[in-house]
Amino acid sequence: MRAMLKENYGLHASDFFKVNGCDAFRIHQTVCLVVPVHHLDEDELFELHYMSQYLQEKREPYTAVFQAAKDGKLYSEHQGVKYAVLKLGQAGARNSISPGRELAQFHQRGRSFPYQLTKSNRIGQWKTLWEKRLDQLEAFWRGKVQAHPLDRFEKLFIESFPYYLGLGENGIQYLVDTELDDEPKPVDSAAICHQRFSRSSWGGEVCAKLPTDWVFDHASRDIAEYMRQEFLNRPDELRESGASFIEEYDRTVPLSSFSWRLIYSRLLFPLHYFECIEDYYLSQEAQKPYYEKQLHQLLERSGEYEQFLKSYSSMLSMRTRRIVLPAVHWI
Hints:
By secondary structure, the protein is an alpha+beta fold. Helices cover about 50% and strands about 10% of the residues. It is globular and about 60 Å long.
């Protein structure tokens, strides 16, 4: 790694440490991160590069920007893996104790991004992407049913999939109804968002907002994924932490009824279940017990998740109680 950084970037890295799970080092007062980018092609890296430069110009705190290699590329290869080097102009622990407020401000700055995006754009694409995902998983599930597996994970998958397929179809229908029945407001225009936003997305002791985590989408994506992760990781604090997170966000940038309904459609669509199944089949043999345990826990908590979905409307702040969210009656 040191040799790669010296040869490709002219950077002399010494002591490595971890930031957001990535290798990091200091050059004078600047923190640099080495981030794997095997899942991003060159065009998408350039779009993320423009987004990071834009947010840095807008003075978004803790924004990391790409360091170009000597050959002008935004990545380098080392032992068959693609890496990008990201520079943090400002390093340190976050002062904010209000993640909802900070996320709202992040979206507000990212909403004015002026350039056309293709590779990173997800706005208006949820229905197509979700339907494709369901179709592929259903076809895979049918193949497993016909194979009569004895493996414990596959038995759990075969038994549970029809329920989560139904929940996913409910999410898609709720999304479709929202787009038909409700009117987007200016706050519903696309913003710079995250693939999967959570409490840990911006790091701990060293805060870093990494462009390699970003997409261009509706802000409800980040709000819903934060709530989902709170349910999965901090269930005992969810009612208080989730409600205060949404209230802080809504107080900073008031959400429309269209936004509230999109958040709910995304929570209905059980991404956490689908990703657990996909990750199991993509993982190495040594990692499979981890995903088997994760699936078992998700299934044990399926009733709890229904209760969370049922209680969502009570998390609307007092200011937005006049918004009526259509109920999903079977939950």
